Fold this sequence. Notes:
The protein is α/β, with parallel strands linked by helices.
Amino acid sequence: MSMSGGDRIFIELAREWQSLSYSVSILVCQEAVAMFSNLKGVRLVSLSHASVERFGVLLGYAMRIVQSLMRVVLNPRFGQFTLVCSSSDFLTDVLPGFALSSLGGGHWVAGLFLIAPNPFRGETSLTIRSLFYYVGQKVSIFLMKCGRARVLVLNEFDKATLCQQNGVASERVKVISGAVDLVEVQGVRPQEGLSFEGCFVGRFHSQKGIDDLLNIWSRVCSTTPRSKLAIIGWGDDTSQQYVMARIEELGLSQNVRIFGFLDGKRKYAVMKSCRVLLFPSSRESWGLVVLEALACGLPVVAYDLPVLRSAFGDAIVTVPMRDREAFARAVLRLLEDEYTRSLFVSKGTQLSQTFSWKRIAQSTLEGIE
């Protein structure tokens, strides 16, 4: 089980709302209970026991939708909430949210943190999964409009797409940002015995640039053969096998260590044991991992995406899209040039201190109460 950026955002919002004396309940599938279990004072309610790993993506999600809707509709106590939040635009989250708000469950807040690429316009390859994602998101947006949800997005570009291309009223869409718990980050020390030149945090997915990452690190190692990369990443069995095969194929077995999914202090301890974050994502809505790296004192190298430029400006190093050679050169410069590295560390640390979960949580509630 892994945690998406949307999950992280709503976990932190729930934590802050609970600290403001709100009574918070989170409705999750059974697989996610452990992921949310560290939220003190927050009640967890399991809506579905269907396993995606056991039944597959399509059947597993379909079963979750049916089970969740049945629990919501058949149980009267689910209509007693004053605020209902859906952490993603997946129908497994949106349909229960729509049902709860329709049954008198209060205001509905829905997160839509990444616009699905259109497979019919060549924005992504046309597969069953990409088609399911694109069509499913269109249905979710329609339900958000019908349910008069307050939709949370992470940048002005996505807001414009929702309003201009999907007919969502501008006043129903609110742009928020990610943030980081600076107190928690600053209280973590590098993990003893670990030392890595590079770091990557993310899913094993083409969108996150996993192929580019390994190719770039191979180029880095051709110049500095002993360089080591820490991958705090996860994926399904197929993607994990693919990543392991690529590592072997590129001769990086001694240069890459995969930690799997880590969160909180464990993740920060590994990140602080690294010197540079590699962020070769080709499509993002904001970049929460980037902010976490800056808070940990890591300079960041990323592809030049408009949303990253808007959020982080010159606090990160950007290179042209898909230019793996330029990416590798930028990483090597940060590893070899201490003055340049310290300059970006300083910029990043200062910028990270301007983002606050408390401010975002309070802002999200504006206009709802």
